[in-house]
Each structure stands twice: as C-alpha cells, then as structure tokens.
Amino acid sequence: MSAIEANFDGLVGPTHNYAGLAEGNLASAKNAGNIAAPRAGVLEGLAKAKRLADAGLVQGFLPPHERPFIPGLRALGFTGSDAQVWESAFRRAPVLARNMASASPMWAANAATVSPSPDTADGRLHMSAANLLSTLHRSIEGPQTARALRAIFPDDSRFAVHDPLPMQGTWGDEGAANHVRLCAEHGAPGVEILVYGRDAFESWQARFPARQTKQACEAIARRHGLDPERTVIVCQSRAAIEAGAFHNDVVCVGNGRVLFFHELAFEDTEATLDAIRAAAKGLFDPVFVEVAQDEVAIEDAITSYIFNSQLLDWPGEDRMVLLAPKETQETASTRAYCERMVAGNGPIGRVDYADVRQSMRNGGGPACLRLRVVLTPAELKAVNPGVMLDDRLFAALTDWAKTHYRESLSLTELADPALVDESRAALDALTRIMGLGSDFYEFQRA
Ligand code: SUG
After folding, report:
1. Tens-place pLDDT, residues 318-369
2. What residue range is the signal peptide (predicted)?
3. What's the rounded Cα separation, in Å, for the pair 19 and 16?
4. Is residue 97 part of a domain?
C-alpha cells in the first residue's frame, strides 16, 4: 500500500451560530443575526464525511473547541462562577462575548498547514497550527488546535506539530486554506504552493483585510524543512480578496497534478504557473484548469463556492471527482460550467454535491471543513484510531449530536448561561467517544 490522503473534518460545535464576525467573508456578513441549527450543522458534516469513508477514502475528525471560551473571558477580567462569567460578559460586552462563542474551529482547513513527509528535510510529517490572528473569534483557536493535533498525531519520531507562529500581525497565518500541494502521487515528493494576501512589510489598503502574510508563508516553509526549489510562494490577487475571497481556497483547489482555479485567483497568473512548472520539473507535468472570468464571474465563484470543493481521487473512477457544495448546483453559471467540464476530456470526470448549508452560511464549504493529511501506511498506523471514521464512530457521533445539540440557536439564546454546561457536557462525552483523554479541554483540567 502506498501513501494516502486522509481528510480530517472539523466537527461542527454545539454553539454554531451566525454572529457576522468575519470581515471580508460575505456569507458571514449576510447571515449575521440569523437563527442557526447546530444539530443540523453537525449532522450535515457527518454525512459528508461518511460519503467519503463509504467510498473507501480515509476519514477522521478534529474535535470542536470549548465554547463559550470561559478561560478567555476570565483573562479579560470577568469573574464569578463559569455561568456568571458568561452571563456578565454577554450583558456588559456582548460583542466580545459573541467572539468567544463561535464554532469556527469547524473550518479545519484553517487549523494548520500540513507538509507530508516526502517533502520535508527530516522525513517527518510537519504541521503548523495556524494563529488565525486576523479575526478575534479565531485568534483563540491555535493553542487548542496544537493540542488536538498532538493528541491525534502523537509520535514525535514521525510527526512534528509546531505551535502557531507569534501573535503579531507580521505572521498572519490561516493554515491549509492558503496552501496547495501538487504531486505525481501522494507518497512522492510534491510541490508545495503557499499563497499570501499581503507582504507584511508593505502597507495594505483595500476593501477587505488580507489575512495571510508572505512572511508567515516563508516561516512555515522554513519550519517544515521544505526544499526551496520545490516550494512556490505566490500572491493572491487583490481583486479576489476584494470580491470576498478571504482565503485562497475560495478561488483555487488542487489535487495530484491538477490545479483548478479562477482566472482572478492570483495577482500574476502567468508568473505563478511558470513558478509551479519550474518547481515540478523532473517530478511531474502540472495540469492547469483555469476558469475564465467570462465563464464564471468571480462573484458567482464566491456565492457558489465552486472552488471550495474537495478534489478527490475517487476509488474506482479514472478521473477525479469534485465534491462541491449544493450552492454550486444552484448557481446557473457554475452548474453549466460543471456540466461542460465533465462532458469534456479534462482531469475532472464527475461533480457531486454536498449539503453543508449550515457551514456555507458562515462562508465554509466542503473544502473549509477538512484538513488534508497525506500519510504513509506506517504513519496512518500511528494516528490515534479514536478519531477515525468507521461505522461505530458514525453511529456514536450521530447519537451524541442528537443528545447534546440544540435544534436551533439564535444570538439571544447564545446568552443563555445554561449553554456553558450544555456545551461542556457534549465535549466531555466526545473525549470519551474519541479516546482523547479526560484532560483534553481546559474545563476538564480546571
Ligand atoms: O474564517 N467564518 C470563517 C470561514 C472559514 C472558511 N474557511 C476556508 N475558506 N478555508 C472565516 O471567515 C464566520 C463566523 C461568524 O461570523 O460567526 C467565520 O468565522
């Protein structure tokens, strides 16, 4: 057996809500104040993951984080019992409180940047937990993400889990959402493409923030021991950011030799493609599938999330499968594009659609929900088996979601002090289901 690509999906957390916290993310702004359906959200995610597992792909999960994040509020001066901290934070500083209650760790593509072992100098699989410092609600994710990755990939002789980069604007890092790896096959050395929105040493003035910096990309490539000749660090286009592509994976996805991207994804497309060709020289010939602005306007690319799809080698099929969100099927230009694409003889032979609407309304499509980890057979054996999806885990998580998750959650209901214990009971039960130990969350260690 050769190396495989596993997908680790972020489980939608019990406090999933629509607070409009993410500047530059049009879906988050548009749905601010709407009533969320946490139970439907987690079940949608489970169904998507099950589809891949049933097809024979390797699928795992990353656990949600503790939300509301009471330790964060205590550090900011709120006191009393945990329920009192939550109640008083919501009353005195409601915007701050909402920032401590987002279920944003569900977007596992932002958990970390992952470099598989064939690409690294020491032959270990390297992961850097993302600092997500450009938004308040996500800037609290990094330490718990690093803890989760260490619990899932525990063997230091095979896995190197790096802490987030320093919490200073120069190092803005949003993880694998701005990283693409191309290769001849998963286990062979690949080309790692890191995409930044801005150079932190230059000023940035635009409609929306650019979250990933060039300096963060360079630091990650150094930490992971990537070969500079096989590493491409390129600039995302300002036009894409200003149209609402807050991460590169909203306008670009890759798998194997194939890069599927929008004409406006990169600041300098020609230079980007030349750099990829040069880095791949001697390894493989990259295949570029570029979608022109006059076929799919960037605005449609963003509302449909066509590029925020999982591009997969599907067992039993010759050509790749694009697992796109339902919204891609419901947007005329992207549906027509997909029909033309699969009718042609390009590398993508089928488009399938997943319903992840609860996540989509916060700007997270199928690709946002997963972290890809290429694993050799020996590495796969070293992964904590409790988080890997099989029929037992699927049944247990479905029951768990039905027991612990609310059917609906409005922003007013988010203030409910009972939510603190409710959400902790869910997470505590989850650590038992997934074998994560009884000291995984801060509330368990207190
Ligand atoms: O960081 N949304 C997330 C969506 C992340 C999508 N991930 C990728 N593209 N890989 C974000 O903008 C919205 C939360 C809120 O508004 O409550 C949010 O954080």
Report:
1. 999 999 999 999 999 999 999 999 999 999 999 999 999 999 999 999 999 9
2. none
3. 9
4. no
CA angle 364, 102, 353 (to 5 degrees): 20
Q: Is 138 in the pocket of ligand 1 (CB under 6 A)?
A: yes
Full residue range of the structural domain in which residue 351 is found = 4-67+102-445
Q: Is residue 10 situated within a structural domain?
A: yes
Structural domains in the chain (count): 1
pLDDT digits (tens, 9 = 90+) for 190-238: 999 999 999 999 999 999 999 999 999 999 999 999 999 999 999 999 9
For residue 146, tell me if it sits in a domain.
Answer: yes
Task: Tell me, in angstroms, the distance from the centre of ligand 1 to residue 99's CA.
Answer: 12
Tokens for 108, please give them: 């596992």
Domain-located, residue 352: yes
Which CATH number characterizes residue 391's domain? 3.75.10.20
Is there a catalytic annotation at residue 174? yes
